[in-house]
Amino acid sequence: MTEHIENRLRSFYFSCMATNGDLELLEKSCQVRLVEKDHKVESSISDYFEESIFREANQMAQHYMTFYCLERSARNIIVGKLEAIHGGGWWGEKVPPNIQTSASQNMQRELDAGVTPRSESEIDYTTFGELGEIVKANWADFGDIFKSTKAFTKIMTNLNVLRGPIAHCSPLSDDEVLRLKLTVKDWIRLQST
What we know:
This protein has helices spanning about 5-30, 40-45, 50-85, 90-95, 95-115, 130-135, 140, 150-165, 175-190. It has one domain (about 5-190). The two termini are about 20 Å apart. It is mainly α.
């Protein structure tokens, strides 16, 4: 699949997610059900928590999904590009040493905790901010995808700030929901121009 088609599909997917979020807001304000939901999860989880917390979690779930897709997509772009250009040893050759160390420590922390490892790939143990640093450290390889270093840095910074409340279970205000939607559109546009 060509990069152009992938970018269009990614843009379409994020537009659908945004539309779904708008439908849910409309449902809430008009107190009418427009989208059928899976009630099995609601009935099991909602029995244990306050209704207000459950409703808030339900609203925040769409933003988590947006960010999950965004972060996984960024990881795929990085791996695909660096592996295509530098081969299988790209991690040791192209990732800044401090990020390699951080990923190794995160991998060891999971191993020591005795939990199922999230991945065998080091990139999955990096933070969102570190993903941006990997791209900037290898800008010559990514300049054909992300057309402007300044725009890339600005968008990544905005996304990293917006990620905080989502990752740490705090509700987003209406302004920040709008900012997230616009910043995701900026991210897609940056790759499409």
